[in-house]
Structures are given as C-alpha cells and as structure tokens.
Write a structure and sequence with these properties.
The protein has about 200 residues and is mainly α. It has six helices and three strands; from the N terminus they run αβαααββαα. A three-stranded antiparallel sheet has the order 1-3-2.
C-alpha cells in the first residue's frame, strides 16, 4: 500500500533524486521556463513553489532554508527580491505545467513548467478586442480654409511643361549671345583689315 507516498521514485535513489530536483529548481527559477518529463515537472513544482513562499517570508531563516535547495546565491537573491515582489499578492500557484508532446526516443510524456506572469507572457499577451456592437464614426473637426496652408495647384504635366519652357528659353538666350559675340568678332576683323589697308 502507498500510504503517505506523495511523489514518485523515478527509478533513482533518494540522494540522486534530491540532487536532480535541486538542479531543476535552480534552472526553473533562473530561466523561469524549462522542459522536462511530466512526472519530474510535478515533483519540481512542489519544491519551486516552496522556495517562492520562503522568498515572500523574507527573513534570515527562510533565506537559509532556501539555500539548502537552490544551488546559487544569485538566484536565491532573485527569489527573495524580484519573484517575492512579483507574487506578493498571489496566495499560491506560482507555476504552470503545460503538456507538450511525447519524447521521440522512449515516448515519455513531456511537459513545460514555467512561472506564471513572466516577462515573455506580458509581451505576448493579445491586445484587448474592441466590444461588439454598433460602430460609431468619430467626427473630425473641419479646418477653416483660412487656417489651411495654400497648396500648389497643378499636375505633374504642368510642372514638366514649365521645366521644358525654361530650358528652351535658356537655349534661345545662349544662341542669341553666341550670335552677338560672332557679330562683334566679325566687326573687329573688318576694322583690323581696314586699318591694315590704310597703313599700306
């Protein structure tokens, strides 16, 4: 008969089982999410929730009891500072077990055990859906025509035609300048020829 037997043996000696649970609780409190078999997750949950309850107590004796299980002082400090503050108003149930799949090698049922209300969960929380019902359009205040800045009217075609006209004007002005300079040159040449003829 299994009187007063709460957890499974898991095919390990008591010292081996305790060492395994200590490692898994430390990893869970550090990463806030681990994947393991279903039976191990149920055993880890009991120890992890005890550690968070000790963190909420916060006295020296509770810290020493937590250090008997948790293998790192930095993670113990995290439990007594961050996690204790996060679960201050929660009377229990700090972890969640999600059944995932069966392991490929031996078909063992696998689960994810995680802390409730983690940073990932807040960021991945879906946005609140709008209430169903009649949709009322919001009235947009109309601006007076005096307040609006004057916009340039005209299409792209007009802008391109203006550019072409200005380029034609520039080309025409260049032609006239070149004609005037050529006339001046011819006059100078004629004057120089006349002066040479007079000298002769």
């Amino acid at each position: 008969m299994r009187h007063r037997v709460v957890a499974g043996v898991l095919g390990r000696s008591p010292s081996h089982r305790l060492a395994m649970y200590r490692n898994m609780v430390t990893s869970l409190l550090e990463h806030e999410r681990i994947e393991t078999t279903d039976a191990k997750a149920k055993g880890v949950r009991r120890l992890a929730e005890r550690m968070i309850t000790l963190g909420k107590r916060g006295d020296l004796h509770a810290r020493r009891r937590a250090l008997r299980v948790i293998r790192s002082r930095s993670i113990t400090a995290k439990v007594f500072d961050d996690l204790a503050e996060r679960f201050r108003d929660r009377p229990g149930g700090y972890t969640r077990i999600i059944k995932v799949r069966n392991r490929v090698g031996d078909s063992a049922p696998m689960s994810i055990i995680e802390l409730v209300g983690g940073a990932d969960e807040k960021s991945a929380a879906p946005a609140a859906k709008p209430k169903k019902g009649r949709v009322v359009a919001k009235k947009v205040p109309s601006k007076e025509p005096d307040d609006e800045p004057k916009k340039k009217t005209g299409s792209k075609k007009k802008a391109t035609s203006k550019k072409k006209a200005t380029s034609k004007k520039k080309a025409a002005s260049k032609k006239t300048d070149s004609k005037a300079t050529s006339k001046k040159k011819t006059k100078k040449k004629a004057a120089s020829k006349k002066s040479t003829n007079k000298k002769k």
